[in-house]
Design brief:
By secondary structure, the chain is mainly α. The chain has 15 helices and 2 strands. β1 (242-243) and β2 form a beta hairpin.
């Protein structure tokens, strides 16, 4: 039997020695010691890939400083918070639009809006419809008395209207819920964003993925999703390069999140997002000298002219 390797505990000083041995420049040891104590060596070292030598997973490029490494860590934290608050806006909006549409068309009690007849009648989707509706009902049972609003309706009216129910449903569940609606209902909802039904379904699934990354404070800047968004006018208008007939940027990277939010946010909200991102990119560019801004943007998945999307219609 092969011997299993174990990761053993390292003191802060030992962590600093490891970073130095890998070529990282430590200018202010006391400051580095405090940051590693507060932020966790494992998470900070997870950003080293921006600065490692070609073919190496751990050897830093000559001259790379801890300040540069920590700047990428801090950059990711700040843009993660920026994206998260905007995804939450979209989440609230889509929940409101779906609940309004279904309540108006099918009624405002669970027995009405959760009636299986209201959802796709495709026989191949029978099991999916049943599973998702059961998931929604289960969340009503589990969470119904954990929230003031839902408990108020249960106690006073004996039911939970959908505009209240959506508050206890996760974004992932709402994405699945949209996926089992009848096509005409999907299209009515998607039209609020100027999208077709299939595109919005893909957007919601990918947004739920990005939301989870943000909520769990995972590394965001180089995150790639399994699914890709469909080609859209912004890929062409920004003249994004194609490799094997696939756009190099804006398909399953962080720029695809920017593109989706371009469609899903109000113009003022999106402009604020882009301005915040530009500010963070400029700060990072001022601190990082070892690698170029173009290399940083490439790692993120942004084309060099990414900021131009703010002016496109």
């Amino acid at each position: 039997m092969a011997k299993m390797n174990h990761k053993i505990f390292k003191t802060i000083d030992e962590q600093i020695d490891i970073l130095r041995a890998r070529g990282l420049v430590i200018n202010d040891e006391e400051k580095v010691r405090d940051i590693l104590f507060r932020e966790n060596y494992f998470f900070i070292s997870g950003y080293r890939h921006m600065f490692t030598e070609p073919g190496s997973r751990s050897k830093f490029l000559t001259g790379t400083s801890f300040e540069e490494l920590y700047a990428v860590f801090s950059f990711d934290r700040r843009i993660r918070n920026t994206f998260f608050k905007n995804i939450l806006i979209v989440e609230n909006n889509i929940k409101s639009i779906i609940s309004y549409h279904l309540s108006k068309k099918y009624g405002f009690k669970e027995k009405d809006y959760l009636n299986p007849d209201n959802f796709t009648q495709d026989k191949l989707a029978d099991r999916q419809v049943n599973d998702i509706l059961n998931k929604v009902r289960r969340q009503i049972r589990v969470n119904g008395r954990k929230h003031t609003a839902t408990m108020h309706y249960i106690d006073n009216y004996g039911y939970i209207p959908m505009w209240i129910l959506v508050k206890v449903l996760s974004f992932g569940t709402m994405a699945e819920f949209y996926g089992i609606l009848k096509k005409e209902d999907q299209q009515s909802i998607a039209s609020a964003y100027g999208l077709d039904a299939e595109t919005l379904e893909i957007y919601l699934a990918i947004l739920a993925n990005f939301r989870n990354v943000c909520a769990h404070e995972d590394i965001l800047y180089d995150h790639r999703t399994q699914r890709m968004i469909p080609d859209c006018k912004y890929h062409n208008m920004l003249n994004i390069n194609m490799i094997d007939d696939i756009y190099e940027y804006g398909k399953n990277d962080l720029f695809c999140l920017v593109i989706m939010l371009k469609f899903l946010l109000r113009e003022d909200e999106f402009n604020d997002l882009i301005s915040e991102l530009r500010y963070e990119v400029e700060i990072l560019d001022e601190i990082v000298d070892t690698v170029s801004l173009e290399s940083i943007l490439n790692k993120i998945g942004f084309p060099i002219n990414w900021y131009d999307i703010k002016e496109l219609n």
